[in-house]
Design brief:
The chain is α+β, with helices and mostly antiparallel strands and 365 residues long. Helix content is 23%, strand content 33%.
């Protein structure tokens, strides 16, 4: 399904979770962007073909650190219809190495919506810092998950009933003048710890066809996770060239709808969407304006509430780790860690940062 969808949108538009998207075929600036990306893809293919063990086979889950697990589980289950899949508590040297922190005792809960999953982690010890209260959508520690919904008006009123914290001023709609993405609607809000979330509605003919299937559910699943990046080229080298994710599409986003969606005045973004063979997408948000977004704090740790970790499945974790080391990626874990009893659902894995500090958990099943 993901491969079919990627073929449908590649070279045309990234329509997941984006606003005021201008069709590539209708905009000369974007046509040039797409031609440059074609050239980049061709050059990469000619220079280097990734060995199969280095290619990510699935984006399995998106995780975040929470302050109070019971409170977080209540929110995601009662407000957003996630179902708890597993609930484990772990400690020991292996988990200290994996998370890059001494003395950790973790409670980890996996929750599912549709076919996609999130992983919530509470650090029973040691506790970390809260999300900075002045965080904005263009700060480079920004990340969110986008939840596809069957009805935007009902979903928004449902969130209002639970008095969620707004991040957008209100749901925003792509105008009819944008034929490629007209009718897509989205809204940003926050969970109890301040993590950014998005609901997104795809009208018929837009987005992944699976979101168009008849359903009596209001919240359908996770379409993608979005991260703010400082430089699209540098991020593509990490995610595409080193990990083998596929560029599905890109766009230039601006205008009053985009500004009020992100709640950033003057927002103009270069957005790129990447996909694996399975799971939600990863979306780059590069702010062309304004340029005052802040970098990840130097002292950020996985027990801080601004920490997210996206789980990527590979065939050979050692081979991928070696490839990333050669390319001077910043590791959180000291190396590949074997997990006793596969209590977290994988045999071995490690945490590594992308060029902007976003954490990927690379695992081998």
């Amino acid at each position: 399904m993901a491969a079919k969808f990627s073929k449908k949108i590649a070279g045309v538009i990234l329509s997941v979770g984006v606003f005021t998207t201008i069709a590539l075929t209708q905009n000369p600036v974007l046509s040039q962007v797409y031609r440059r990306e074609n050239n980049r893809s061709t050059q990469t293919a000619q220079i280097q073909k990734l060995p199969s063990q280095a290619v990510v086979s699935a984006i399995e889950s998106v995780g975040m650190t929470v302050s109070d697990m019971d409170k977080a589980v209540d929110f995601y289950s009662q407000v957003l219809s996630f179902q708890k899949v597993s609930d484990v508590e772990v400690l020991g040297t292996e988990y200290e190495k994996l998370q890059g922190l001494f003395g950790v005792r973790l409670r980890v809960v996996r929750m599912q919506l549709g076919n996609e999953s999130i992983e919530l982690t509470e650090y029973l010890t040691p506790k970390g810092k809260p999300i900075p209260v002045d965080s904005r959508s263009n700060d480079r520690w920004f990340q969110h998950i986008a939840l596809a919904v069957s009805d935007m008006d009902k979903a928004y009123q449902h969130l209002r009933k639970f008095k969620v914290q707004h991040a957008s001023t209100a749901p925003q709609r792509i105008p009819n003048s944008n034929k490629a993405a007209a009718g897509i609607r989205a809204f940003y809000f926050k969970d109890p710890d301040g993590h950014n979330l998005e609901i997104i509605y795809f009208p018929p003919g837009k987005g992944d066809p699976k979101w168009q299937k008849p359903s009596n559910q209001l919240f359908l699943g996770i379409d993608h996770t979005a991260i703010v990046v400082s430089n699209t080229e540098a991020s593509l080298k990490f995610y595409r060239d080193l990990l083998g994710l596929r560029l599905a599409g890109e766009s230039m986003n601006y205008g009053t709808e985009q500004e009020h969606l992100n709640n950033v005045e003057g927002a103009k973004l270069h957005i790129s969407g990447l996909r694996s063979l399975a799971g939600p997408g990863i979306e780059f948000l590069e702010y062309l304006t304004p340029k005052d977004g802040r970098s990840l704090p130097n002292d950020a740790r996985p027990n801080d509430l601004l920490h997210w970790q996206t789980t990527l499945v590979v065939k050979d974790a050692e081979a991928v780790a070696q490839r990333l080391r050669i390319n001077k990626s910043a590791f959180v874990s000291p190396g590949v860690v074997a997990i006793p009893g596969e209590k977290l659902g994988f045999k071995k894995g490690f945490l590594v940062r992308d060029p902007d500090g976003h954490v990927m958990r690379v695992v081998q099943k």
